[in-house]
Write a structure and sequence with these properties.
Number of strands: 7
Structural class: alpha/beta
Largest sheet: 7 strands, parallel
CATH class: Alpha Beta
Strand content: 5-15%
Number of domains: 1
Radius of gyration: 17 Å
Helix content: 40-55%
Distance between the termini: 47 Å
Shape: globular
Length: 269
């Protein structure tokens, strides 16, 4: 099986990350699978080896810059790095607010820094954000300010110690970070975008459904009244990192089944 280059996927052991890795394998890309869970990571690799030209695994924490750099080294050894999908993150039922900010926002900054250095011209990066970032609203966008400046991580993390709120703010900060950094990536011929899913049928998503009764109301309010499947989010990420999206960068693609307007939010606000 020929290798068309490599792709690096964080949070690849399960859920959306694993579904994206499967799409990348179908494109002929060798895979560097990055996650903190060694058993699930090994199982994911075993599943993907029959369909991918190459599969390597790296146990890494996305908040550790040296571990992220090592993962990029492994991906580059497979072949020219064509695509990065950053899916690792924490949701409100899994961690306190400080960890949510540290992983969701801080980890994204580290991955973006390394991707900007390592991706060649023509490469693309997609970051998984969330519908919750859109629900945070304009007031929190103003509070976030410029997430690219020195000290932004600490300032943003100080906005709340409530996990549910921290999750939405962290994802909004990720969207703003990608939007503001797209020009620098673009000067190197690299595209970078975010995807904002609604609640998705993954282990993390099911944990949130079990812990938040309001999610059932969110599902019922959507134009497509069901949770998303990880493969549906992966299809969008695959598009954004592929040739069909060659003029798309610095934007967020909302994949919420029409939930936001159903809840009375203006997706263009």
């Amino acid at each position: 099986m020929g290798c068309e280059g490599s792709a690096l996927v964080t949070g690849a052991a399960r859920g959306i990350g694993n579904a994206i890795a499967t799409r990348f394998a179908a494109r002929g890309l060798g895979l560097c699978l990055v996650d903190r869970e060694p058993r699930e990571l090994a199982a994911a690799a075993d599943h993907l080896r029959p369909i991918a030209p190459a599969v390597e695994v790296v146990r890494a924490d996305v908040t550790a810059a040296d571990e992220v750099a090592h993962a990029f080294d492994v991906a580059a050894a497979i072949g020219p790095l064509r695509a990065v999908a950053h899916c690792a993150g924490l949701s409100p039922t899994l961690a306190p607010a400080a960890d949510i900010f540290r992983v969701n926002f801080g980890g994204t900054r580290i991955v973006l820094d390394e991707a900007e250095r390592r991706l060649a011209s023509g490469g693309a990066l997609v970051v998984i954000a969330s519908l919750a970032g859109h629900m945070a609203g304009p007031a929190w966008r103003r509070a976030i300010g410029d997430p690219t400046v020195e000290g932004a991580e600490g300032r943003i993390a100080s906005l709340t110690d409530e996990p549910d709120m921290a999750y939405g703010i962290s994802k909004l900060a990720v969207m703003e970070l990608v939007r503001r950094r797209a020009a620098a990536f673009g000067r190197r011929g690299i595209r970078v975008n975010t995807v904002s899913p609604n609640i998705t049928n993954t282990p993390m998503g099911r944990s949130e459904i079990a812990g938040h009764a309001i999610i059932h109301d969110m599902v019922r309010a959507a134009a497509i009244p069901r949770v998303a499947e990880p493969e549906e989010i992966a299809a969008v990420a695959d598009f954004l990192t592929g040739p069909g999206a060659s003029y798309v960068t610095g934007t967020d693609l909302l994949v919420d089944g029409g939930c936001l307007p159903g809840l009375g939010f203006d997706p263009f606000a």
